[in-house]
Design a protein that fits this description.
Blueprint lengths: L7 E6 L5 E7 L2 E7 L10 E3 L4 E4 L2 E5 L7 H4 L6 H12 L4 H18 L3 E8 L7 H12 L5 E8 L5 H9 L4 E4 L7 H15 L3 E5 L8 H8 L7 E5 L8 H14 L2 E4 L1 H7 L15 H6 L4 E3 L16 H12 L3 H7 L2 H7 L14 E4 L4 H7 L4 E5 L2 E6 L9 H4 L2
Parallel strand pairs: 1-4, 6-7, 7-8, 8-9, 10-11, 11-12, 12-13
Antiparallel strand pairs: 1-2, 2-3, 5-14, 14-15, 15-16
């Protein structure tokens, strides 16, 4: 369908159960009023009767350079190091255009499902062209300008030469990232990455403590960046789920005071963690509820989508929210906040949703309630970015008549 810019969304149901009309003013929600039953549609109206209207999701942790590569690689299943080895072997023989093509297809899936903001980590290797992946993903980003906000994190290889990270920033990366917990010297590796970010005045999003029993990146980040004003994010943080309250509570107090956001990635971490624990396998997901109660801004991402790090994944925030409910025991409302409001806060984006004054980044889904939507992830959706319809999925259903009906 053509991109349209409706003036008024009619008869939408909000998460609190109210049925409303939502007036849009360009990229902003202008007003939300009780719906008038039976009022005729006029030019500029879009009928959302039967739809639940929500803030459009934001995904604060993706890997667009890796997405949709699983079929080409057919990797051996295993833990994080196994996945890294499979990916490293594959990426040596691929091209910039191939990376861009997969990234474009992945972005299309995210947008069709309702996500209008993405933060993607893109590998900066320790050898070869340091910015090949960043250029490829930046080219894909350009194709979706005005439809989806995309931030690129330069995901530095362990023990990397800082000049290679700087080359990636020069080619379009917005933040500095890496995985110090995998390095020979975790403290020194993190310091190198933070030094680069500080020199260039950019934020950081670090893969932190992505192992069940080792890693101290989050604590080191909290102490080193406590006075920074740029965005700082620690992603994964699965080791926190293995810590006792006596260990965890003081750490979370430091993290909250430092203003560091945390991003849980339930799907990929459930897949990658616990391979060495065949009995009573640990969940391997950051403790979202404990983080939230400590005052830490806590979001959630889909992470990998059908690549060596995760053979499944639907690019769908409803999947991520459902997994948070099941694995971290947060409420449905808290889980949805983690993939909408908290995700946008972690990314430094303005608030969005069907609230006056917020950005008109919206998702309408055929559902009766938020719980219904998170449980069933209905296919029928309308996606709004900056007040415009940018994607729509319609569905039909047919079922054979029930036996008792045929007998009538």
């Amino acid at each position: 369908m053509d991109v349209s810019s409706p003036r008024r969304l009619r008869g939408a149901t909000l998460a609190d159960g109210r049925v409303v009309d939502v007036v849009l003013d360009g990229e902003t929600v202008d007003a939300v009023t009780d719906a008038v039953a039976g009022a005729p549609l006029v030019d500029g109206d879009l009928d959302l009767g039967g739809f639940l209207l929500l803030a459009a999701p934001a995904d604060p942790h993706t890997h667009l350079d890796k997405a949709l590569s699983w079929d080409a690689i057919r990797p051996v299943s295993g833990d994080l190091e196994t996945a890294i080895a499979s990916w490293t072997d594959f990426i040596r023989g691929t091209t910039e255009d191939e990376i861009r093509g997969r990234a474009v297809r992945a972005i299309e899936r995210y947008v069709a499902n309702g996500t209008t903001a993405l933060r993607t980590h893109v590998d900066v290797p320790s050898e070869g062209d340091p910015a090949r992946g960043v250029r490829a993903v930046a080219a894909a980003r350009a194709q979706f300008a005005g439809i989806v906000d995309i931030e690129i994190v330069a995901l530095a290889a362990r023990d990397i030469d800082p000049a290679r990270v700087e080359a990636a920033l020069a080619e379009g990366a917005d933040l500095v990232g890496g995985a110090p917990h995998l390095a020979t010297d975790e403290d020194a590796d993190l310091a190198r990455l933070l030094d680069v970010a500080e020199r260039h005045g950019v934020g950081v999003d670090i893969h932190a403590d992505e192992a069940l029993r080792h890693g101290d990146t989050l604590r080191l980040m909290s102490r080193r960046t406590a006075d920074w004003t740029v965005t700082r994010t620690a992603s994964h943080c699965v080791r926190l789920s293995m810590m006792t309250a006596d260990e965890l509570d003081p750490l979370l107090a430091e993290v909250a005071a430092a203003g560091i956001g945390v991003v849980a990635n339930p799907l990929t971490n459930l897949y990658l963690q616990g391979w060495d624990d065949p009995v009573a396998t640990p969940r391997g997901v950051a403790p979202v509820g404990r983080l939230r109660r400590a005052g830490v801004t806590t979001a959630a991402g889909g992470d990998n989508m059908r690549d060596p790090f995760n053979p499944v994944g639907r690019a769908d925030a409803f999947e991520t929210a459902m997994l948070l409910v099941a694995t971290t025991h947060v409420s449905i409302d808290e889980a949805w906040d983690a993939v909408t409001d908290a995700a946008r806060e972690v990314m430094g984006l303005p608030a969005a949703g069907p609230v006056p004054g917020r950005r008109a980044e919206l998702l309408a889904v055929r559902a009766d309630s938020l719980a219904d939507a998170v449980a069933f992830a209905p296919a029928e959706r309308i996606v709004f970015s900056r007040g415009r319809v940018v994607a729509r999925i319609d569905s039909t259903r047919w079922m054979a008549p029930r036996a008792q009906e045929e007998a009538r």
